[in-house]
Amino acid sequence: MAGLVLTRPIPLLILQSFLLAVAFGSNEVEEEFSEALLLKPLPDRKVLAHFHFENRAPPSNSHGRHHHLFPKAISQLVQKFRVKEMELSFTQGRWNHEHWGGSDPLSSMNAKPVGVELWAVFDVPHSQVDASWKNLTHALSGLFCASINYLESSASYAAPTWGFGRNSDKLRYGSLPREAVCTENLTPWLKLLPCRDKDGISALMNRPSVYRGFYHSQRLYLSMVDSGEEGVGSGMLLEQTLTVVLQPDDVSVEKHLQPSWSLSSLFGRNVVGKCVLAKSSNVYLQMEGLAHPEAHTLWKNAEFELSIKPDRTLRESSSVLFIYSIDKSSDSEPFDLGLTWKLPSKWSCQQAPLHASRFLMGSGNERGAIAILLKATESQDKLSGRDLTNGRCTIKANIFQIFPWYVKVYYHTLQIFVDQQQNTSSEVLKKINVSPSTDKMSSGMMEMMLELPCEVKSAAISIEYDKGFLHIDEYPPDANQGFDIPSALISFPDHHASLDFKEELSTLPLLSKFKDKSLVRSYTEVLLVPLTTPDFSMPYNVITITCTVFALYFGSLLNALRRRIGEEERFLKSKGKKTGGLKQLLSRFTAKIRGRPVESPSSDSPATRSSILSTKLLFKIILVAVAAAAWQFFSTDM
Amino acid sequence: MTKDDGEMVEEQKKKPCRFWIWALSSVLFRLILISFSGNLNLSSRPEVSTPLTSIRRLAEGYWLKQASMSPYAGSMYHGSPLLLSLLGPLTVQRVKGQPSHLFCSLVFVIADILSAMLLRGIGKKLQMAYGLNARLLGLVKSPRDKGILPCGDIAALVYLWNPFTIVCCVGLSTSPIENLAVILALNGAVTRRVPLAAFGLVMATHLSLYPAILTIPVIFLLGYGLDAPPLKLFLQTRNVESENRSTSSASKQAKSKPTAHLPFLWKTVVHFVFWVLVWSLCVVVLCSLSLSKHGGLEEMFRRTYGFILSIEDLSPNIGVFWYFFAEVFDFFRNFFLIVFHVNILFMLLPLAIRLKHRPCFLAFIFLAISSLLKSYPSVGDSALYLSLWALFVNELADMKFSFFLFCGYLGVSLLSPVMHNLWIWRGTGNANFYFGNAIGYACFQIVFVVESVSAMLNHDRALKRCNSNHQKVEN
């Protein structure tokens, strides 16, 4: 890595690097960029293509000022918000754990929940973590043309403590299951690459073929690499991966045969040379579960045939890796790797020890229950990862789940069933951490650690909830579609996914990544909870009707209370002189309306009443006339 | 006096037998329903359990507390920490083969029985006072007049057999306990046990805030004595027999001192205020002890009273505020919050001025109004004021629209589950269906309150007229 000097085609860059070298001495470590593409036929007649771009910026005093390869937008992000580690993924489609693998590094790192998922660890004091997160979401939202800024509100993100697999209290996690992922997100992502999609492996990313796939996950991982030296700061590592699962066009007649494909048939494009700025530019083909282990060195055998001879072949316990370097390809001789099957072949993928799925129970819009079902898989790996505590073979599983506030979970209703038998919690449930949701303020979070016996067939967790009722402004435009509950994350702390090819070539970025032990994790489905809606067209009606009812209450009760005054007055007046007054008239009028007999009806003759009425009428008319005249006067005066 | 009492006891000997049969059968009925409570599923009805009274939320609060979190963490529990300490341990007790929350149900049954007995005590006092006043005014000649109904027994049975009370008791809402505290306060005030009255009032206020307005009627009860016709009538009455009476201090005072002013027993009231302070201090200290580890009192007030006053939860109930605040524009939210809460306070003063000679009736009206304008009303509140209403059967005998109101209450309580089902479960109706029902219920309550007040005022008016004409009125 150190002291490696790339030949730069552009004179300006040479000059720049020369100047930098003069300014900071010769121990300056260069930034590195490498690209790789991993192809892998899947058992269910599909092909997985995994693009991997790695960009390293070495620790330097000057970082942030000048970058040759490292995207400036990202380095500014790091500087501004003190991001220590961050992962952002845009995913469409669901990872099929059964057929595409569950416990290899590829699936544990790239099987992401639908929509946008973002987590970040910050290097700031505790009090500023939330503020940094909010700013980061806005910055990323602008950078990737996505509505990541919705993660800003405290009701949509959580701070996992241990359930996420990273024990940091400065970690924030949020996901937007509803986010649609399309080219508008891919284009800014490609802009971060030095060659964009003009040259090298990324030139394969033909939009129609990439988005035609069954699964599409575009990921950006950023982490700080500590140099260990004082005053140097830390380097940055930016990993951009795009994982697509494609269905090759099947032209063969035979149904049992796996479909044959080539790069040009999959993507509609060819690789016509490496990105000149890349340090290494490789294409890998991984074949799993070969029937003839001794035939692993043969790239042309009875079962299948590759169109190009691999530069190297590596083997691991269960898979074979063919490595190609695309340095030699050119416009005249494009690199078009193809795989042709000759014999029907079947194999299975490495699966996670337990297969997780999640579903809703109950009907109606009032309440329900969420169940997470863990089913044992036919996993060879189960025995290797077992943990013999107290002489018992156990599988540990961590469940991390976020509940939006409108799903009001009753944690005391948590029930755990192991092999359909209800279990007292303490037997299986080793650890639980709950942070309940606050209405409109924060989302709820549940982390739990289960310790299941190895011979378990199935385990189910159910928890009841009430559905919330929202204010009309809080509903999205398509309110009747329902609301999403983000995926739960199931991770197996005792199981690690790694592929070790035991070669010096493991220093290649993608292979070294595979060599790192990563936690086996799987995301469950996103759940759609329909919430009941109020009538969106009613606010005025509701306000007026309710206010009318309360006016009725106030008026009629007050009227009932003050009725005596009029009565007594009338009583007195009927005894004394009969002078008509406004009060008396009003009280009599109300008495008449209410159908109550007037206490002294004989004392009132219709003549006197009419005369009173007429004088009052006259007075009213005069009043209105004066008001009208005044209005007229003032309005003309203006 | 001895003669009267002897006759009354003799008279009561037949009736109590029937009363006890009915009371016991209501308890049995409750116990039978409790054994089926799993099928009835009443505890999740919005009419029965509100965010404040739901037992599920209480159990959640207890679970959070056991998990060494604040019971108010999240937005689940909004009740009192004392109730949590009392009922919380019972929510986790399970007996095999028995419905869950069996012990809680039994506590609520006991609370209902106690409330009914206390109501009966109030009713007996009121009945005696009524007979006494009628004789003082010369309206009733003999104390054995059959016209005076045993309002205590009636009120107790109305409380025990009211479907609303039964549903609340079986549906595991905490409103029986809130009602018990309110009735305790009234009973204490009626029987002039000042510490008891203060305790009931403080507890009721602590549990559900709204009974705080009962301070006025309780002070009137302690200061002026039991319900009586207006003082003027006694002043007008010339031929009062000089008998020695001890039950109604007001009438006694009025008789001995024919002044224009009603005497007010300041000493008792000061005594009461002192006890209120003592009990409040106790409650505050206990609450702060139970919440000392998390949040403390500030959080408690924010999560209980703050929750009641700011109407945060918009889940449907039989009131009208949930829909109003789900629909109203945010800009006006605070304005309407103030308007609706002040609506309760606005009516207190006029009612207190007009009905100060009938403090028990005033308490009933206050409770009815608070049930009408509550943030999270449930049928438990209606059950309370309906049984208090039965205390005044003698006075309110000629109340208008009673059949109409009965049909209205019946119709609303039958339609409410139907509308809720249509809206929430079937999805064939919308929120307006249920809201329309709630508006209807509010209207019936308004008519009920207004008609009760007018009937009582008319009754006083009739007494006055009869008195002035020296005629006998049959009630």
From TrEMBL, chain A:
Entry annotated with the keyword Thylakoid = no
Q: Where exactly are the transmembrane stretches of this chain?
A: 540-561, 617-634
Keywords for this entry? Answer: Membrane, Signal, Transmembrane, Transmembrane helix
Q: Which domain of life is it from?
A: Eukaryota
- Per the record, GO CC terms? GPI-anchor transamidase complex
Name the InterPro entries on file.
Answer: PIG-T
Q: Which GO terms describe its biological process?
A: attachment of GPI anchor to protein
Q: Which residues form the signal peptide?
A: 1-25
| The protein's name | GPI transamidase component PIG-T
Give the source species.
Brassica carinata
TrEMBL record, chain B:
Q: Which domain of life is it from?
A: Eukaryota
Give the record's membrane topology.
Multi-pass membrane protein
Q: Cite the annotated pathway.
A: Glycolipid biosynthesis; glycosylphosphatidylinositol-anchor biosynthesis
Entry GO CC? GPI-anchor transamidase complex
InterPro entries, from UniProt?
PIG-U
- Keyword Cell inner membrane appears in the UniProt entry: no
Its primary localisation, in coarse terms, equals endoplasmic reticulum
Q: Where in the cell is it found?
A: Endoplasmic reticulum membrane
- Name the family: Belongs to the PIGU family.
Write down what this protein is called.
GPI transamidase subunit PIG-U
Organism (species) = Brassica carinata
